[in-house]
Design a protein that fits this description.
This protein has 79 residues and is of the alpha+beta class. It has one helix at residues 65-78, and strands spanning 2-11, 14-25, 28-35, 38-44, 50-53.
C-alpha cells in the first residue's frame, strides 16, 4: 500500500510543498520524498524517532540539515 500526499512547511521564511509517499512494509512504515533530485526515506529508528536515510548511499551534503529537520518535524506532526 502506498499513498501520495503533500507535505507543506516553511523553513527560513520560505514555504515548501514536498510530495511524499507513505509506504507500509510489513510492520513498519516509511515516507519517501525527493529533495534536490535525491530520493530519501524517512522512517523510525530504534528509539522510535524519525531518521532520514539516503538509499543510494551517497552524501546529502547539498541538503541543509535544518531543512531536513523541519521536514521530519512536519511529518512527525502528521502521525
Amino acid at each position: 500500500m502506498d499513498e501520495r500526499f503533500a507535505v507543506e512547511f516553511s523553513y527560513k521564511g520560505i514555504a515548501y510543498n514536498i510530495e511524499a509517499k507513505f509506504v507500509i512494509l510489513g510492520y513498519i512504515h516509511q515516507f519517501h520524498v525527493v529533495v534536490n533530485d535525491e530520493h530519501l526515506i524517512i522512517e523510525f529508528d530504534e528509539d522510535r524517532d524519525y531518521r532520514v536515510i539516503n538509499p543510494a548511499g551517497t552524501s546529502s551534503k547539498t541538503i541543509d540539515t535544518g531543512f531536513l529537520q523541519a521536514l521530519v518535524e512536519k511529518i512527525s506532526s502528521l502521525h
